[in-house]
Specification:
about 270 residues; single chain; mainly alpha
Length: about 270
């Protein structure tokens, strides 16, 4: 069938009208979607974020909480969301973001009734960076690593315990601090041993004194006293060597002053 000019013209008009109608429908649909999005209240947004958090969908929760904070920064929901967000970051394995969020909350809300939680999260984030028992099992020499994360974690937990002794997070913080102080003491002993190997006996003694003064009761105190005895002997200070040996014997009866006496692996 041959199409006349009039027919082609009529068809073109119909096509244009159809395309135009489709465009209007899309525009109306988009406006409705944007309107619905813009009408979401901070309470509703917080509810959706918390639902994702409870479901363990931490990535989705982070996005919702970030949107809540950016759209409604001064709402009560946003302030509560800040606490949840630092936890969501922590669970989503975004330690830097979690620490930044905790620091921001502490800085902006120093008198908030739940600021103890911010210190707790800050301590947990740094605690996760401390080598665990698996690394010890595979003989990784952890004592030689500068314990940056251990110090940060210890300080956060210490602040929590000192400022909020009745906090629900205080008990767990104390247990973690006990582990961390042993880790910190081990590092000091590692440095002291390094000094002894290089003949820097005064430096070794100072490190050991620091352990005794700051980490009293940790397993490292025995090695600290032992190194002090050796160092004073090498410096030809018999009185101080004898005094240190006396303290060592009183606290750890039968302990040899040899550095390797209690190391089963040191057999040569």
């Amino acid at each position: 069938m041959t199409m006349t000019a009039s027919t082609r013209s009529t068809l073109s008009v119909r096509v244009l009208l159809a395309v135009g109608a489709a465009g209007v429908l899309l525009a109306v649909s988009g406006c409705g979607s944007n309107s619905k999005k813009n009408n979401v209240t901070p309470e509703k947004l917080y509810e959706m974020a918390h639902k994702d958090l409870d479901a363990g969908d931490y990535g989705a929760a982070v996005k919702q909480y970030e949107q809540l904070e950016s759209r409604f920064p001064f709402s009560n929901s946003a302030r509560q969301g800040q606490l949840d967000l630092m936890y969501a970051y922590y669970k989503a394995r975004e330690p830097e973001s979690a620490e930044d969020q905790a620091d921001q909350f502490i800085r902006e809300n120093p008198a908030h009734p739940r600021v103890d939680y911010a210190y707790y999260i800050k301590g947990l984030v740094a605690f996760e960076g401390v080598p665990n028992f698996l690394e010890r099992w595979f003989n990784a020499d952890l004592s030689k690593r500068p314990p940056v994360d251990a110090r940060k974690s210890f300080q956060a937990f210490q602040t929590l315990v000192q400022r909020f002794p009745t906090s629900p997070y205080a008990s767990d913080s104390r247990h973690r601090m006990e582990f961390l102080r042993n880790r910190l003491a081990d590092y000091e002993i590692s440095v002291a041993s390094y000094y002894v190997d290089r003949g820097a006996y005064v430096g070794a003694i100072n490190r050991c004194k620091y352990v005794l003064e700051n980490y009293d009761g940790s397993p490292a105190t025995r090695e600290a006293l032992r190194i002090m005895v050796q160092s004073y002997e090498r410096l030809e200070m018999p009185d101080l060597a004898a005094s240190s040996a006396k303290v060592l014997e009183a606290n750890f009866p039968g302990t040899s002053t040899s550095r390797f006496a209690d190391k089963w692996w040191y057999f040569w």
